[in-house]
Design a protein that fits this description.
Order of helices and strands of chain B: HEEHEEHHHHHHHHHHHH
Strand order of the largest sheet of chain B: 1-2
Oligomer: heterodimer
Number of strands of chain B: 4
Structural class of chain A: mainly alpha
Shape of chain B: globular
Helix content of chain A: over 70%
Largest sheet of chain B: 2 strands, antiparallel
Number of helices of chain A: 13
Number of strands of chain A: 0
Strand content of chain B: under 5%
Largest interface: A-B, 122 and 126 residues
Strand content of chain A: under 5%
Distance between the termini of chain A: 11 Å
Shape of chain A: globular
Chain lengths: 290, 342
């Protein structure tokens, strides 16, 4: 969305700040270290022998895979493989539902004229800022009443309450940037509105939808509060599992194992984020600055 | 159809009834056909919106209403007067009085009970919110300004700032809990012997530092996007006129980036006001780090209706803060979500 803008600004900024490139690099290095050092420390610790948990050496020393074995060790009461699967199911289904439903709403909000549009937009935006704790008590009572405690839907439904507004909001901002003239042209060529939507708009919307899917998935994958209250052992998600990990030694915080678990949960997300960096930045900032 | 096609392009789809004069237009021929079209579009729009609105009604509106109803009911339990177990029933404003005035059974709640912690939790929540948002705004602005410059490896920095954002908060909490451990890397690096998560002041700062680490990138990216919307000619012109770097920053950058900045601050403020994961995992709410959200969760185990009242209060506090932001500080997220440019 901002390629042209950023290259234009790049050239002038270079001129404007050319007197202090060294200072820029120094500050950039500080940002880099600030952002990556804790993450790096997690990975180093994840591979470190438990006896050297607090060794301050900033390199991979005393490397072992034991921590990863501990994480997946069923005999210690850890069910991490199951937790991963649970997270995948909950976040995956949440993402699919939010996108399928949200894409239509976003199309309407970005493209069509109708009364009370601001009101609908305000409602959806307000919903995305809604505090999760306010859902817990009524849902706790409701799910207990209908026997849904311990089911996946008991986690998916509240998760939708956060992901759907965000998906609609992000998609709406993306859709505004799309070349709608093509749809107009299709209509003039004799397509119905529905046909134009299916044949012209949906393919055009695919990249934006994909980006939104990544954001939605990451959001749902990271959810903790609802999952910690409404999940049972069999539906426990990874974030909840990490918060309550059992180590090889009882009564001792299993730091290295927890860092290993954190690494397992985080690495796929970080790869996803680095690969789709540009799209994600566009998705995060869409709508907020226009 | 084609007569008013231009009004269809994205630029002019100004939302709402704003200035459309849809009803009873002045009788111009064009306005009439636009009217008819709007009706069909409106129907089509609501058809498309129906699934979303129904789903949001089910997952948000219904729980809110239910929570409000629950908040006016008594929790089932032993009646202190008779000693018998009684079902709830209508409680009036009792649950709210319990929290707001810290009243337990008609007297001040004894220390240690959840009821006695309400105003403390409120203070802690606002303490976290104010400090975190200030730190994040300053740091985020600085990061954004650096990232907006052109230098080799800029895309590397832009990728790197996404790493803290992508890590689940629960993992961040555990990671910082480890780094802030007594024998942890932070005490070792700085040669300190601070019980970070085990004493009041440090515990709060450990949580604040973790939150700042995790969410500053988000702030920085929103501000960066705002910076990139400022045309460079403006800076050129200011330089020609002899404005200093500081003047350019305060006279051009700040006012022009203000809308994006306000939205970023609004998002982050509402986020910290409902903070749960970091303090819950790092301290469990001990050492005066109990936020409103943590208090609600603790109360859930003691009585759902009391918890409902507390969550309703939390909801209202957040709603009020959002209202103040939008109304008085010009952080109009809805308006910025609706297209403005012509």
């Amino acid at each position: 969305m901002s390629n042209a803008v950023s290259t234009a600004s790049a050239t002038t900024r270079r001129r404007a700040f050319s007197w202090a490139p060294a200072r820029t690099y120094l500050q950039a290095a500080v940002i880099l270290v600030w952002c990556l050092a804790p993450f790096y420390w997690m990975i180093v610790t994840a591979f470190r022998d438990v006896g050297f948990t607090f060794d301050p050496t900033p390199f991979f020393t005393h490397v072992t895979f034991d921590n990863f074995r501990t994480v997946f060790d069923e005999s210690l009461g850890n069910h991490f493989a199951q937790n991963l699967l649970n997270s995948l199911i909950v976040a995956g289904i949440t993402t699919v539902i939010s996108l399928v439903v949200g894409v239509f709403a976003a199309y309407a909000l970005a493209r069509l004229k109708f009364r009370f549009k601001e009101l609908v937009l305000g409602f959806i935006l307000g919903a995305s800022m809604f505090p999760a704790v306010a859902l817990i008590t009524p849902l706790f009572q409701f799910f207990t009443g209908i026997g849904w405690m311990g089911t996946y839907q008991a986690l998916i439904i509240p998760s939708i309450s956060f992901s759907l507004p965000l998906a609609v909001y992000t998609l709406t901002s993306f859709f505004r940037e799309m070349p709608w003239e093509l749809e107009e042209a299709a209509r003039i060529d004799g397509c119905t509105q529905g046909q134009a939507f299916r044949k012209v708009i949906l393919p055009l919307a695919a990249p934006a939808t994909f980006t939104t899917a990544i954001l939605t998935f990451i959001g749902a994958w990271n959810e903790f509060l609802i999952a910690s209250q409404l999940s049972v052992d069999s539906t426990k998600t990874v974030t909840v599992a990490i918060a309550s990990f059992a180590g090889a030694q009882p009564h001792q915080e299993p730091y290295t194992a927890v860092m290993a678990a954190g690494t397992v949960v985080t690495i796929p997300l970080v790869i996803l984020v680095l690969v789709f960096q540009r799209k994600i930045v566009a998705g995060l900032t869409a709508g907020a600055v226009k | 159809m084609s007569t008013d096609a231009p009004s269809q392009t994205r630029g002019t789809t100004t939302g709402g009834g704003a200035g459309k004069g849809s009803k009873g237009g002045p009788g111009l021929a064009g306005a009439e056909s636009a009217d008819r079209r709007e009706v069909t579009q409106g129907r089509w729009a609501y058809t498309l919106l129906t699934p979303t609105l129904i789903l949001l009604a089910v997952v948000i509106v219904y729980p809110i209403i239910n929570a409000i109803i629950m908040s006016f009911q008594k929790d089932a339990g032993l009646d202190p007067a008779t000693g018998f177990f009684v079902q709830g029933g209508f409680a009036g404003a009792d649950n709210y009085v319990h929290w707001l005035l810290q009243q337990c059974n008609g007297q001040a709640c004894p220390p240690g009970t959840l009821g006695s912690q309400f105003w403390n939790a409120m203070g802690t929540t606002f303490f976290f919110t104010i400090i975190t948002v200030i730190l994040e705004t300053i740091l985020g602005f600085w990061m954004a300004v650096i990232m907006a410059r052109a230098f080799k490896g800029r895309s590397l920095i832009r990728a790197a700032v996404l790493v803290p954002w992508a890590i689940p908060t629960a993992v961040t909490a555990k990671l910082f809990f480890f780094m802030f451990a007594f024998d942890g890397i932070i005490n070792q690096l700085f040669g300190t012997q601070i019980l970070w998560t085990g004493s009041e002041g440090p515990a709060r700062w450990a949580i604040i530092i973790s939150d700042v680490w995790k969410t500053t990138p988000f702030m920085a990216l929103l501000i960066l996007a705002g910076l990139q919307l400022i045309p460079d000619e403006v800076y050129e012109a200011a330089k020609v006129d002899g404005a200093s770097a500081w003047q350019r920053f305060t006279q051009i950058t700040l006012p022009l980036v203000r809308p994006a900045l306000m939205v970023a601050i609004l998002f982050r403020t509402l986020d910290v006001l409902r903070m749960y994961d970091l303090p819950a995992i790092m301290t469990g709410g001990a050492n005066n780090t109990t936020t409103l959200s943590i208090l609600v969760v603790q109360q859930v185990r003691q009585g759902l209706n009391g918890a409902s009242a507390l969550s309703t209060i939390t909801f209202l506090v957040i709603f009020l803060v959002a209202f103040i932001f939008v109304r008085f500080l010009g952080a109009n997220a809805v308006e910025s979500a609706a297209p403005k440019k012509k």
